[in-house]
Amino acid sequence: MTTIFDPVLIGDIAASNRLVMAPLTRDRAGPGGVPSEMTATYYRQRASAGLIITEGTQISPLGQGYLDTPGIHTADQLAGWRRVTDAVHEAGGKIVAQLWHVGRISHTSLLADNEVPVSSTDRVANAQTFTVTGFIPVSAPRALSIAEIGAVVEDFRVAARNAVDAGFDGVEVHGAHGYLVEQFIRDSINDRTDVYGGSIERRVRFVDEVMIAIANEIGAKRTGIRLSPVSPVNDATLDSSTLATYGEVVDRMAKLQIAFIHMVEGATGGARDFAPVDYEALRVRFKKGNEHGTWIVNNGYTRDMALDAVQSGVADAIAIGRAFISNPDLVRRFKENAPVSPVNAETMYGGDYRGYTDYPLLNGDPA
Questions:
Q1: Active site residue 196
Q2: Which residue of the set 42, 43, 66, 179 is catalytic?
Q3: Structural domain count of the chain
Q4: pLDDT digits (tens, 9 = 90+) for 39-72
Q5: Domain encompassing residue 199
Q6: Which terminus of the chain is more solvent-facing, meaning fewer CB atoms within 10 Å of its CB: N or C?
Q7: Which CATH number does the domain housing residue 117 bear?
Q8: What is the DSSP string of 58-124?
Q9: In a domain, 331, yes or no
Q10: 51 and 210 Cβ atoms separated by less than 8 Å
């Protein structure tokens, strides 16, 4: 019987176990969005995960939405990420970069020359972002033109190439949590009347073009996507037809033969039953068109829940977030059914090594 501790092939990525470190924004990038030596230490400490998915990493200056988040579009950023990937690989781990464009979840103060954030829409989100003055409401966006949409697709392609050049084993596109990709997918946000809005087929055109461009650039077997069909974060109210809309996305990802779909079940960091959706139906659709694609599930999974999901076959791997922050050796703790240390919420975002690289191992030794 398959367990979370068994190896799994995620596309072309040979993972030693089925526990995935979920992407976790920590707001600790150095000047210019460059990952630091401390970042390399943080990820190396957690390299026993079968796969690490990095924190959200902006594909362009306009893709940034929070203070001190890393990018993957300058030479200095790539050099910083190379330190990270080398450290993880030396420790025996696998790591993919989460490619991120926040769209309207940003603020002019975070963007060059106080530029206005962009989105599928010009409607402002009822959301906040993290700036030098703390959490403040996001700025009103402007809707991307069709030509600009093509340029953003190109930014995703270049970012994927940059990720591979920086030593990553692959990439995950952030298609969840009310950021730019989902701002096109959901009709609760996308109010366009052109070829990128209206029908389901038109609203999923953007994500389809992004994923095709990346798969053509680095290979589908090194490409994945994160989806959150009902999560309400960042003012992402429910689509009018969730299963039909996300079923179309899943079908297109299956057709592309991508390595994995990373599915957030329920409200991110909250209720798993936030809104009804048949995740098993989505999984079956993905597998029907992509037999070897990996189905990764996420949101509030405990050790027992993870074991049950993999053993029952409703998931191939389990992504866990906060527990990996405070337990660098989470895989060992799950294997030994040992206590899991709680995370310190006060040091989640920003700051120094405290609450970042100083969480101890099970025996109390430094990580």
A1: no
A2: 179
A3: 1
A4: 999 999 999 999 999 999 999 999 999 999 999 9
A5: 8-347
A6: N
A7: 3.20.20.70
A8: ESSGGG--STT--BSSSHHHHHHHHHHHHHHHHTT--EEEEEE--TTS--GGGSGGGPPPEESSSPP
A9: yes
A10: no
